[in-house]
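Fill-in record for Peroxyureidoacrylate/ureidoacrylate amidohydrolase RutB.
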Amino acid sequence: MAELHPISMYEGDIPKNDTAVLVVDMQRAFFDNNDSLGQAGLDVTPLRTAIPGSVKLVNLARASGVPVIFTRYVYMPGMVDFGHKYGASAEARKTSNSLGFGTEEIEIISELDVQPDEVVIDKSRPSSFYGTRLEPVLTGMGVRNLIVCGVTTNICVETTVRDAGQRDYGTFVVSDAVGEFLPERNHYALFGMGWSFANVVTVADIEASWASVPQAKAG
């Protein structure tokens, strides 16, 4: 395999004020092969690499007074918004009501312990902005910076990050709190985001940067 181009890692300060952590699609179906994605032939095991970093980031945000917003990939009853899907297993997923409303597999994993006052945004496309209330929520909260983690790096995380960057949010993607099916896809998704749409950071970078900043005002 050819040598991968290095990812440009951000070395500046990471804002804590006017900032939210956006946790993309950390749902049971993306981590358990017994659920619909696994049953359709997609081995979701590699995505579990996103769990430890996402848990640490979410706990850090809560302790620092930074709001946490979650997204879920969910289709309406009857899969009426499933749309045309490119790639493998689309018809099998539609037939099996994959990520269908009301199924247990759409729920955010227990490790993240979603709190009653935390916002959960449902979506049926990769971008967390497309057809959702995310942008009005961010405006209402006074958020101008987004720190993004979740799955998958190359699809929903990257599409969300591109949309955030194009809306002029200060956008940060957390390299050790994302997951992808193939390591090359993970690498080049981060490479592309760092090239033009976001700053690529680690959980440790955020922790170090926030340590010197007064606690943010939640909500």
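KEY FINDING: Residues 19-210 form a domain with the Rossmann fold fold (CATH 3.40.50.850).
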